[in-house]
Each structure stands twice: as C-alpha cells, then as structure tokens.
Amino acid sequence: MPGRTHRNLRLVLASALATLIVIVLPGTQAHADPTVAELEAKIQKIWGEAEPLIEEYNGVHEQYKKNKAKQTALLKKIEPLQRQVELAQLRVGVISAQIYKGGQADAFNAVITSGSPQILAEQLSFIDQIARENQRQIQGVSEMKAQYDTQKLPIDQLVATLAKQDADLAAKKKTIEAQLAELQKLRRQAYGTSGTTGSFRPWPCPAAYEPTKGYKVASFACKQAGKPYVWAAAGPGSYDCSGLSLAAWKQVGVYLPHQSRAQRASIPYVSRANLRLGDIVFYYNPIHHLGIYVGDNKIMHAPSAGDNVRMADMDQAGPIHSFGRPG
Question: Hey, what CATH topology would domain 213-324 get?
C-alpha cells in the first residue's frame, strides 16, 4: 500500500507540473537564429538611414569650424580698437575728474594769483579743447568699432545656429551608432572575429600604372585597405567615405571638404567613359557616399560602420550619381 500511494503521488505531481507549464508558457516554441542575409539586411537598412545623417553632420561641422575661425579672426581685429576706446575714455575721465574736483578752487586761485580773468579763461578754454579732442577721438573709434560689431553680429548668429545643429546631429548620430553597435555584435556572431567574407583587396590595386596625380591618389587609397570605418575620420588609422578621398587627394596637394556632397560641388564632372585613376565616384541621390576609382571598374571605399576600407565593384557599391575629378 505505501508503495502504491507513493506512485500515485508522483503521478499527481507530474500531472500538476505539466499543467503548470502549459498555463505559464502557452506559446513557448523554438525560434531560429537570424541568418547572415537577414542580419545584413538589418544592417543595411539602418546604415541607409545613418550614412546620410553622418554626411550631413560632416558638412555642418566643417561649416561650423570655418565660421568659428572667422569669428575668432574678427574678434582679434576688433581687439586693438577696443583698447583704443578704453584708453581714450580713461584719458577723458581723468581730465573730467580733475576739473570736477578742483575746477572752481583752481579758477579762484588762478584769479588771485594771476590777477587776470583773461588768463583763467584761456586755461579753461584749453582744458575744454583737450576734452573735446578726446571726445572726438572716442567717437571716431566707437564708430569704427560699431562697424565691426555690425559685421560680427551675423557671424555670431550663424555660429550659434551651427553650434545647435552640430549638437543635434551629434545626438542623433550617437543614437544610430548605438543601434549599429548592437547589430555588429550579431554580425560578428555570424561571420566570426574577422567580420568579413573575403579579402579587403582581392584584385590588383591600382589596376594599372599611369603617370598622373590620380595614380598616386589611387595607390594611397589601395594601401588603406583593411583600416576600419570610423565616422568623421580622415586617417591615418581609420576613415569614413569622404575622409578617405580627402586624405588620398591631400597626398598630391589637393584640398577637398570633408563631406560627399561638398566634394561633388567642389570638383568638375567627368563622364564614365573618361574615368581615370583617382577620380571620385558619387553614390545615391541625394549624395551620401563615394569611392575612389582604382581601375578595372573597381573602387576603394569606406563602406559603413563596423566595416573596413575595401575594394569593391563600382556598380555594386550603390546607385551611381556621377563622377568627378579633383585637381
């Protein structure tokens, strides 16, 4: 009897546990891990939203730095005038204080000692002329300073606007980077520690030799293969897309702004049929990506956050907008 009772008790407990599992976990079922293709689709979707914002940030930030430099230069230009105003005001203040403090007594003493009101009048007239001359100087300097203040005002307003945009864009980009960082964890799970599916430079790079600046540009870009993408970076250890072209063309003495759209606006167009090594291939509309042409229909570019500078087929890097040639 005791054995049968224990068996019955075990059956009752097992039945109760099964019922509890059904009640508590009614929808429990196995979920398959996302595939590599699904992860890449998520990454590309978020990156499609992130890269235009990053390029916009680069443009605003560059304009902010330029206008900040203008503001500093103008303030330095105004500074000597401000000192002149202060010195002139100080001189007149001293004269005024002297007249106020001892003017009547001095005049009385002058009358007594000189015995001539005419001498006193000449003395007071001389003091008055000095005061008027100082006042004239102050007015002239103040007018000049007012002109500079007028010129400085719009720059101050612009810098304030750009500073706000700079902060807003930085906050937005920080949010997107946090999302990308989470997705990159999954990407590393899918690909392993390398995070890639192949070589960063699987073909000859540049494809051929040309005795041009463009060849030097392309050669420099090829040597950056494998370096990580970092937003707003222009080397030497990391790059974003426009930072790579900026650094590459800097090697041959050509300055480019640190933004893809600004680079497009600053250089002449060329046709696809006339592409040469070092030319820049612009992508999307509005433009928010670019690569450096290295020959044989290939580019070097910094694709996206979590990726590395790499060689790619020109037509597979995105929808081509246009081609340009600096220099």
Answer: endopeptidase fold (from Nostoc punctiforme) (3.90.1720)
